[in-house]
Amino acid sequence: MTTDSRSAPTTPSSLPKPLLTERQEARRRRILQATTRLATRGGFDAVQMREVAESADVALGTLYRYFPSKIHLLVATMQDQLQQLHETLRKRPLTDEDPAARVAQTLMRAFRAMQREPHLADAMVRALTFADRSVSSEVDTVSRLTTAIVLDAMGPAGTSGPPTPEQLSAVRVIEHTWHSALITWLSGRASIAQVKIDIETVCRLIDLTNPNSPR
């Protein structure tokens, strides 16, 4: 079975997308659930557009209208996974007093969720890596969700206003490190212990960029 990476014609991702009706949202949910099942069993190559359509009980043309390619589909799946994680973290927030420690623990919780389903994690990360400009809107959403998770874990960090530019820069570096750690672990080039050390190390940037922390 070959990888189906063809894209159907679609409107540019930069155009605003109309709100989905309840029925359309339910259909989209079935598509994402089918994608998750296939990726969990067989990884990136197991996610074929025709198989997804059959598993979700939608026409192939309908699937392409929702997701122009498997890259769009898998990036949207990662977005969905992060949204679920964000909701879980908000219901059960960490209580460590140190913002850097909270962020490190949060990212390790996310990492361990990926670790439980390595085929799914590999499929989603590969899709992010392969994504081109046509998927920029979906990739941006994944980035915004990751940023929101990190900022929630940071908390106010001793400031009454929004994060400073330095703090946002630190968050971006933390996100890059987390993504890189996922890739090196999935490729077998890093152990869980090494990932934990790298995450804890980069999260120290939070203390360095907190204007109220002693230098």
Structure description:
Residues 1-23 are annotated as: Disordered. Helix content is 68%, strand content 0%. The protein is built from ten helices and no strands. It has helices at residues 22-42, 49-56, 60-66, 70-91, 99-116, 118-130, 136-154, 165-186, 192-202, 205-209. α4 (70-91) runs parallel beside α7 (136-154).
SSE layout:
Blueprint: H1 22-42, H2 49-56, H3 60-66, H4 70-91, H5 99-116, H6 118-130, H7 136-154, H8 165-186, H9 192-202, H10 205-209
Helix pairs in contact: 1-2, 1-4, 1-6, 2-3, 4-6, 4-7, 5-7, 6-8, 8-9
Low-confidence stretches: 1-16
Overall outline: globular
Oligomer state of the chains in this structure: single chain
Distance between the termini: 57 Å
Largest sheet properties: none
Concise description?
It comes from Streptomyces blastmyceticus. The protein has 215 residues and is mainly alpha-helical. It is built from ten helices and no strands.
Characteristic terms for this protein:
mainly alpha; 215 residues; TetR family transcriptional regulator; HTH_TetR
